[in-house]
């Protein structure tokens, strides 16, 4: 099944939030096995999915031994299997990056094999902007899911995303977008969102409102849907999940 890659040239827009919450929403379909993989040395994805802070093991600590990665995979209450990056100091994560530059297959091959299982959907969270990990998996990604905010910085980056310059060559066939942290009460938000939406067309899977329940859910280490099922953001994310499944031909 598809390898879905949550990306953005912009930091802090909500990549990890979207990757985690979409993984949880997708896992509510009992016929799917959902694996959420964290390629960001910040190692935050696990926290969105309820893995305790003190659990710091991850696949990057055993990059050469993919047959052991299952040992660090964590099954969440939502039924997602999270593969954390693992806690590392800066030197170690820079070394991982350098190794992936030299040998991208160390990462790409295990993820490709995982996604080749017809019952498994793999959703990957990435660090902002270019990275060796993103470059390694891009040729194998089936869906590139770019998260942007409805702000001037995101709008300014859109041309580079559209042209492929932001991600380099080897773009997968399917590129979709999410506009996150949309606030209809601001002067600029709706104007920028309208302009981005017009440029994205049907590739826009949806907008997620800025919603206090989202950071609260992270603090509570739950998905937004579990923490606040009636929240606007829960509604928005459920809609995006439905559209994503339709785009993947699953509905
Ligand atoms: N729709 C939203 N409404 C309110 N807060 C949000 C929303 N989406 C994300 N946030 C908050 O914004 C912060 C950044 O989100 P997140 O960590 O998911 O961004 P990111 O793109 O993964 O960041 P980074 O580039 O550092 O990896 C978090 O505190 C998160 O709870
Ligand atoms: Mg992140």
UniProtKB/TrEMBL annotation:
Q: What is this protein called?
A: Cellulose synthase operon protein YhjQ
Q: What is the lineage of its organism?
A: Bacteria, Pseudomonadati, Pseudomonadota, Alphaproteobacteria, Acetobacterales
């Amino acid at each position: 099944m598809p390898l879905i890659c949550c990306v953005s040239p912009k930091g802090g827009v909500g990549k990890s939030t979207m990757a985690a919450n979409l993984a949880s929403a997708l896992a509510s379909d009992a016929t799917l096995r959902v694996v959420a993989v964290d390629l960001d040395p910040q190692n935050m994805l696990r926290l969105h999915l309820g893995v305790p802070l003190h659990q710091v093991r991850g696949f990057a600590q055993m990059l050469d031994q993919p047959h052991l990665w299952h040992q660090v995979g964590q099954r969440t209450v939502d039924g997602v299997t999270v593969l954390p990056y693992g806690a590392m100091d800066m030197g170690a994560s820079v070394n991982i990056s350098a190794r992936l530059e030299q040998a991208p297959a160390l990462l790409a091959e295990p993820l490709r094999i995982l996604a080749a299982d017809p019952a498994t959907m793999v959703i990957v969270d990435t660090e902002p902007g270019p990275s060796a990990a993103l470059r390694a998996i891009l040729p194998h990604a089936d869906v590139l899911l770019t998260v942007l905010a409805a702000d001037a910085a995101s709008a300014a980056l859109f041309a580079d995303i559209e042209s492929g310059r932001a991600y380099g060559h080897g773009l997968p066939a399917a590129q979709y977008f999410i506009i996150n942290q949309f606030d209809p009460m601001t002067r600029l938000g709706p104007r920028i969102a309208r302009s981005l939406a017009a440029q994205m067309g049907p590739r826009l899977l949806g907008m997620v409102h800025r919603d206090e329940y989202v950071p609260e859910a992270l603090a509570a280490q739950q998905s937004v849907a579990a923490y606040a099922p009636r929240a606007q953001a829960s509604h928005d994310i459920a809609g995006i999940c439905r559209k994503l499944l339709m785009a993947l031909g699953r509905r």
